[in-house]
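Task: sequence in, structure out. Protein: F-box family protein.
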Amino acid sequence: MSAPPVRTLADLDGDVLAHCAGYLGARDVASLAMACRPLRAAAYCDAVWYRLFRDQWPFEKVPCDALGLRELYIHRHTEIHQMKFGDPISALYYLDPAGTTPSHVMMDRNSIWFCQGPAAKKLNIDLPETEIVETHRNHSARITCLRLFPLIDTPLFRSDTQKNEKALVTSSTDRTIRLCWKGYSRCYKGHSAPVTALADRLLMDGESKLLASGGEDCTIRLWSMSTRAKNHPLIATFHGHEKALSFLSVAWHKSSLLVSCSKDSKVKVWDTVSPSSGSSSCVGSAHLNSNGPPIAMKCHESLCYIAAGAEVTAIDLRTMKKASVLALQNHRILSCEMMPSEWLICTGTKDRALLWDIRKAQELPNTVAEMQSSGPVTLLHLDQYKVVTGVPSDGQVHVWETRTGHSLNTLGCGEPSRLGVRSRVSAMAVDGCRIAMAGSSPEGCMLHYRDFATASAPVVSLPGKEKEVSRFWRPQEFDDSEEEDSKASWNNQTR
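Result:
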């Protein structure tokens, strides 16, 4: 008796496949479309994308005669991430007026982390009930760096229920490093001068994870995150730099390699497997020909990109040779964001932001976009949808389209001042379609949060002419007629 024929998923009826795809999320449906033609046809079915659209935006109307619901979904998803709307959920939170201006803003899911002098605070943004749920006052001086690491990689991890939690690590001018989580604090002492840099990731080292720090004492120190090294966490001290450390980054192609950059524009690579104190662990060194201190550093695959002076230099970590140099003519770099996976680098200068395509040869015009500014661009964000630029004294941030440099929106920090004095922006953090801005105004220090996920009214007025928001954490209120007009306007534009 012959065996029954082998059947595969692609042998199922198209309607059955489309029904199965209806249980998947947008990312899984997109992955399904890349498998084969029958699955692609099922993944592109309008019924599937209608369900995804309704799940993502339940209160948004879908045109009755809309064709190509997948394209409609992608179009709306893109516009939301480009913040092209004037009615985001917007909330303004005023901080303790006795505190210093917030800095080092980071977003993690439904929380905003920020620093005020020596204190680190966590603001829960589960609207409408929002409050500061954690305050860590473990440092005696200004915080210089803030990092969030998965709790599972720290000695604070206890059960699988905590696998999505993150622990806070801060460094300070008081020469210490603190690991904090929900009231718990662990201190790392060893630097003889202010700590100026923390590695962007934890180093892999067998059973344990290592934290790297650098300071004004020109040393790099490795700290064990294991509970077995609780009493003696300092693993090694690296010497070799002659000035204070500016940046530390873990190499992508090998997680045991640590890349350091100091204010003297020297770049070094350290092998942290069985490290030994001193300079013997240094496996590579290079010097940047720049006329200014490092501004930013980012590792991608086997390359390390460093912005300093008027240049962005790519160094091959395998040979420590310069792979490419992006030179700005007569423009000193004040801020820099890099997206090497998309071949894009954005630099902020005294009066503009410049977006570069790093695939093009140096002798060819490789500027993608040029975004004008009213002052020095020291606040910068870059992703595949948008560029966000900020001038601290301007009190606003500007949103631009990544591929074209077209202006999309202007967002103010705080309420329009009744005294005629503009607010200032001290820091910002962008996460997808959400943005948090920290700053100060005549009314005091503040955090301004916006979420464009459910926005529906396209920006039609002049940038910056937004409605005033409440000083309390709650969405803006609109009457029904305004909401219906906004939805109708958006629907007409997407037909």
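The two ends are 58 Å apart (CA to CA).
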